[in-house]
Design a protein that fits this description.
This protein is α+β, with helices and mostly antiparallel strands. The protein has one domain: Aminopeptidase (3-Layer(aba) Sandwich), CATH 3.40.630. The chain has seven helices and 14 strands. The strands form three sheets. An eight-stranded mixed β-sheet has the order 8-9-10-11-12-7-13-14, with helices on both faces. A four-stranded antiparallel β-sheet has the order 1-4-6-5. Strands 2-3 form a two-stranded antiparallel sheet. Strand 5 and strand 6 form a beta hairpin. 30% of the residues are buried.
Length: 236
Amino acid sequence: MKKELLVYDGLQRCPYLPGKVARMPLYRQLRRLTPTETDARLANAERRVGHALYRTACPTCSACKGIRIPVNDFRPSKSQRRVARRLADLRVEIGPPTYTDEKLALFNRHKRERGLHDTDEPEMTPVGYVGWLVHSCMSTMEMSYYRGDQLVGVGILDVGRHSASSVYFYFDPDPDFARLSPGVFSVLQEIAFCQETGRDYLYLGLWVRDCPQLAYKADYAPHERLEDGDWRRYER
């Protein structure tokens, strides 16, 4: 019985580096992955979109590197510790991913006001949100961040037996809140979750040296990058 189906394997404009061509074969999973299978796919630097997985296979570029944090070795920097103190008042609720109109509105505000929308890109719809972030071929959880009763952030995390993968995080783009670095805080919370549940690695997706939106991931140290088929460790 087939376990997956290739649904897309075309060339496209690289979303990370201008002037580059990307290839990201997309495989729809025909059944739910076990925790052990999830660990193996994450260790291969595969990423999830709904029920599908993809991995970069670009024809002329190898700038994208999988990146992960060995959580038991992680030591926060001074600036990361400051972020943890600044946002210590946030309440974090953990559960299965769900859709609400409030989450969709916050998602679209984050994309729009943080300048993450392409000019011709429509806003996310309820169907698109559920299809990407709620439906999953893996065990997936949601970390919701509240200040008082106000929802100020949502993080989606795929979970294997020995690892977890940060899928997406969006937050209230109000400048007074955004300047507190909630994105950093969410990574610290995900690392803490992995430590508390006995997991070894937190995967942060892809790292690209010359892409500011991805290069920041090297600030978490020590970390490992997937290079030529091997995970290589980098200190701070």
